[in-house]
Amino acid sequence: MNPAIRTVCVDLADWATTTKAVEDIGPVGLLVNNAGVSGGVSFLDTEEADLDRVNMNIRFEGKRALVTGAGKGIGYGIAKALAAGGAETTALSRTQDDLDRLKAENPAIRTVCVDLADWAATRKAVEDIGPVDLLVNNAGLSGGVSFLDTEEADLDRKFAVNVKAVVNVSQVVAKGMVARGQGGAVVNISSTHARLGAKNRTAYCASKGAVDQVTRVMALELGPHQIRVNSVNPTLVKTRMGKAALSDPTLSGSLLSRIPQGKFAEVEDVVHAVLYVLSDKADMVNGITLFVDGGLTAV
């Protein structure tokens, strides 16, 4: 047992007794409602070893990770966090200057410069990287015009990077995972706009909806090989691009009013979600869409 842990014994099925017991505890900053009826031993019989198994210290030593769109924003943060967590990390971007900046911050990160819209060049680049245990398909294009003004070129460009590149990169990586027989984890960065429509975002919303469906199909087909595939779907994130969008008070005010937590996501919020889903702590998490949105999609 851990003497630093305060214990309270009460039957939660007894409403009045539970209310009194919780009131007596005093102020609480963090609450986890975990109690349930299942098999196992009583709380009083839980040992330190049982508690140790739920330690959320996430590390990636011995893992090889690939992050696309790693030159800036969310991908930049994910690549740095994976490297800091011990993973042998490769960062992929189409902009060499961004990769050079990342490399200067962490020389251990391997960088690869390729335009994901180029199917053949991307496939060759990813094949040359070698075995990958953890894949984050983060690269994506945003922006757009009204539905009536959306043109074929806009659809083609968004789908080439946001959807086709996810399939292309994942195929190369997953084939290697299957051949090695050691499993793996894939995270596709999607968006709340996979579920929620947005004006002037026809191609973007359609592409992110496709990402969520690709994620589900991948989870179904690759799950038997112990390869987990999930999507992480953030709301507007305060990256450099996100902050530019927030400079429009009409957009920012309208969106913020719909978020129950009353704030936009930071890069770290998305990074932490991705690290969890990639980790062994999420061993039974497969085929989900994890919204990082302060409750925006709860209504």
TrEMBL record:
One Pfam entry name: adh_short_C2
Keyword Ribosomal protein: no
Protein name: L-xylulose reductase
Domain of life: Eukaryota
Keyword NADP in record: yes
PROSITE patterns assigned to the protein according to its UniProt record, in alphabetical order: ADH_SHORT
Subunit relationships: Homotetramer.
Gene3D superfamilies linked: NAD(P)-binding Rossmann-like Domain
Molecular function as annotated in GO: carbonyl reductase (NADPH) activity; L-xylulose reductase (NADPH) activity
Keywords in alphabetical order: NADP, Oxidoreductase
BP term (GO), one: glucose metabolic process
Organism: Ridgeia piscesae (Tubeworm)
Family indicated by similarity: Belongs to the short-chain dehydrogenases/reductases (SDR) family.
